């Protein structure tokens, strides 16, 4: 940046030299023609030297603003920094450099006034009469102001180029400098004042030279000199206005280019406006850059968020579809469970009916067992009677040795009694068969009950937690059925044993009957028959004792069967109570499953809506992507 510092000093020096030369020419032109040129030069040498020297001395400290040290610090401050000290330094340096053109204009005017006062006080030395002092002062002041305005334009252009070279894009938000307004005011006002002073100076000069009052200066010749001097002045003012316009237009062009970029179809948010002035345009440029930077950051976040949102939208769509499928599967599973619960409820109802039927059969079995017990009591009494008869037969056989006739009669009576005994035994055989049939029915019922309990346990397992209580009841039913089956097998074995014993009694009875028949047919062979009869009676007595023991055992078994039947009846009542509860639980389970089916239908509807919303979200993400792609960040 040393070259810009040098350019600034040289530019200001040239302006001072130009101003001095113009003032010298005006002074020489308005001086006495008889005054030697050397005297005029000697009279102006001091002010001509002091004028550039004082101007350069006053502006030299300002040249340091173009040094690397100040603007390197500016360049290193990041955009949007939160460091208060750096922000203050940045703002201070911007204000200093931005105020330089006005300082140049003011210093030039002040130094020009000092220069003109020195000439005014030394007018005799330069050959200017007292009458021409006022037009001299006016003309020289207008010339000095023109050169000062020209220096202002040049320094303003140099400042703008300096800002541009640093590519500064940050502008403090609290920095408000109305220099553009001042510029738009100072330059026209300066031109107006310069023109007025120049025209006034020429008019007064013409009046003094012609020796006429101002009101009498109507001759065209009197204005010839004024017109000749006014034309170049106007040309110079026009050149000054054009230079100012060109400089201002370049500042507006950078702002307009950025605004066109932001309003174009492909908006590049990475571009920034180079800060070229510290005035309203600088404020606008800084705010536009700040807006663009914020928009860039926001759009970058939007694009990043859009990618995340797009991925989330895809995942949401997939999850929503998976949820719909899962809900459909769950709904299907619940529908199956509902059907199974319905089947279970029907099975429970059927099981309850079967258990009621079992209860009726158990009651019938209990009644049959009661009849069986009575029959056994009767059989026992008959057997005891038969034993007594056999004893009587034994006595009779002993007496038969002496009384054959009595034997014959006794044989006949014994035959009758034997027939009656055979009939009783046959009844016992029939009752035994009834007991066996009843026991088979009990075994069949126990097997069916066990099968029903297993089915109930399986259905309870399908029901899960809701069927746990039913599973316990089913297990108790199964145990009771197994116990019933076991007792039925034991009763069956004992009844078969009794049946075998009764078969023996039947055989013995038949043998006795045949013996009595032989006795009746062969009365003659008395001794042999008596001996055989005696042996037969002893055998019968032994068999009768065995039958009597068997009947006693049968009575005990019948008592145990009766007791077991009563226990089964009580267990059946408890089972019926539990089945009633199970029916109630099954109905509640079925009702709950109906509510679950309804709820899953609502969930499925909600899942379908979520899937639809996910699709809509994808469309929105695509629209956001289309808009975000219109910005380059």
UniProtKB/TrEMBL annotation:
InterPro entries, per the entry: Chemotax_Me-accpt_rcpt, MCPsignal_dom
Annotated GO MF terms: transmembrane signaling receptor activity
Keyword list, A-Z: Membrane, Transducer, Transmembrane, Transmembrane helix
Membrane topology field: Multi-pass membrane protein
Domain (Methyl-accepting transducer) ranges: 347-569
One Pfam match: MCPsignal
GO cellular component, one term: membrane
Residue intervals passing through the bilayer: 7-29, 41-60, 100-120, 132-154, 185-208, 220-244
Family: Belongs to the methyl-accepting chemotaxis (MCP) protein family.
Protein name as it appears in the record: Methyl-accepting chemotaxis protein
UniProt source species: Treponema primitia (strain ATCC BAA-887 / DSM 12427 / ZAS-2)
Classification lineage: Bacteria, Pseudomonadati, Spirochaetota, Spirochaetia, Spirochaetales
């Amino acid at each position: 940046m040393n070259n810009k510092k040098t350019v600034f000093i040289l530019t200001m020096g040239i302006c001072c030299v130009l101003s001095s030369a113009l003032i010298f020419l005006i002074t020489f032109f308005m001086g006495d023609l008889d005054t030697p040129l050397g005297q005029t030069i000697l009279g102006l040498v001091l002010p001509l030297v002091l004028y550039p020297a004082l101007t350069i001395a006053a502006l030299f400290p300002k040249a340091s603003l173009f040094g690397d040290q100040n603007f390197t610090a500016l360049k290193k401050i990041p955009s949007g920094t939160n460091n208060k000290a750096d922000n203050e330094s940045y703002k201070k340096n911007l204000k200093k450099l931005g105020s330089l053109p006005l300082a140049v204009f003011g210093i030039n005017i002040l130094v020009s006034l000092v220069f003109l006062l020195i000439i005014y006080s030394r007018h005799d030395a330069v050959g200017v009469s007292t009458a021409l002092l006022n037009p001299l002062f006016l003309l020289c002041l207008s010339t000095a102001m023109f050169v000062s305005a020209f220096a202002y334009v040049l320094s303003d252009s140099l400042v703008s180029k300096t800002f541009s070279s640093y590519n500064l894009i940050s502008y403090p938000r609290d920095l408000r400098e109305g220099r553009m307004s001042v510029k738009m005011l100072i330059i026209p006002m300066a031109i107006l004042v310069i023109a007025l002073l120049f025209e006034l100076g020429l008019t007064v000069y013409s009046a003094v030279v012609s020796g006429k009052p101002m009101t009498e200066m109507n001759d065209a010749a009197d204005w010839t000199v004024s017109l000749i001097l006014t034309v170049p002045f106007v040309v110079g003012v026009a050149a000054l206005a054009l230079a100012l316009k060109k400089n201002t237009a370049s500042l507006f062009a950078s702002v307009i280019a950025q605004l066109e970029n932001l309003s174009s179809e492909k908006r590049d948010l990475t571009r920034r406006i180079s800060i070229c002035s510290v005035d309203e345009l600088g404020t606008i440029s800084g705010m536009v850059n700040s807006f663009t930077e914020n928009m860039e950051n926001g759009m970058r976040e939007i694009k990043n968020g859009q990618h995340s949102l797009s991925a989330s939208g895809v995942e949401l769509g997939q999850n929503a579809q998976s949820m719909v499928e899962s809900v459909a599967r769950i709904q299907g599973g619940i529908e199956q469970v509902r059907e199974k619960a319905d089947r279970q409820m029907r099975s429970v109802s059927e099981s309850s009916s079967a258990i009621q039927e079992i209860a009726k059969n158990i009651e019938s079995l209990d009644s049959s067992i009661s009849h069986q017990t009575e029959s056994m009591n009767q059989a026992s009494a008959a057997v005891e009677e038969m034993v007594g008869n056999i004893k009587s037969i034994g006595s009779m056989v002993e007496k038969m040795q002496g009384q054959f006739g009595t034997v014959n009669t006794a044989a006949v009576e014994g035959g009758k009694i034997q027939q009656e005994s055979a009939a009783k035994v046959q009844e016992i055989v029939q009752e035994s068969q009834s007991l066996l049939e009843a026991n088979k029915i009990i075994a069949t019922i126990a097997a069916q009950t066990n099968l029903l309990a297993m089915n109930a346990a399986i259905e309870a397992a399908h029901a899960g937690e809701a069927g746990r209580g039913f599973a316990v009841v089913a297990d108790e039913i199964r145990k009771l059925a197994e116990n019933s089956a076991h007792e039925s097998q034991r009763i069956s074995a004992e009844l078969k044993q009794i049946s075998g014993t009764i078969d023996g009694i039947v055989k013995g009875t038949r043998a006795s009957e045949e013996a009595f028949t032989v006795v009746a047919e062969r009365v003659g062979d008395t001794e042999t028959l008596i001996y055989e009869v005696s042996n037969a009676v002893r055998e019968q007595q032994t068999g009768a004792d065995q039958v009597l023991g068997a009947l006693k055992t049968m009575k005990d078994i019948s008592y145990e069967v009766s007791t077991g039947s009563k226990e089964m009846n009580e267990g059946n009542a408890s089972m019926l109570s539990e089945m009633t509860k199970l029916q109630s639980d099954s109905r509640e389970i079925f009702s709950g499953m109906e509510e679950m089916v309804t709820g899953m239908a609502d969930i499925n509807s909600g899942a379908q809506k979520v899937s639809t919303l996910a699709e809509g979200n994808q469309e929105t993400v695509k629209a956001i992507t289309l808009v975000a792609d219109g910005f380059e960040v």
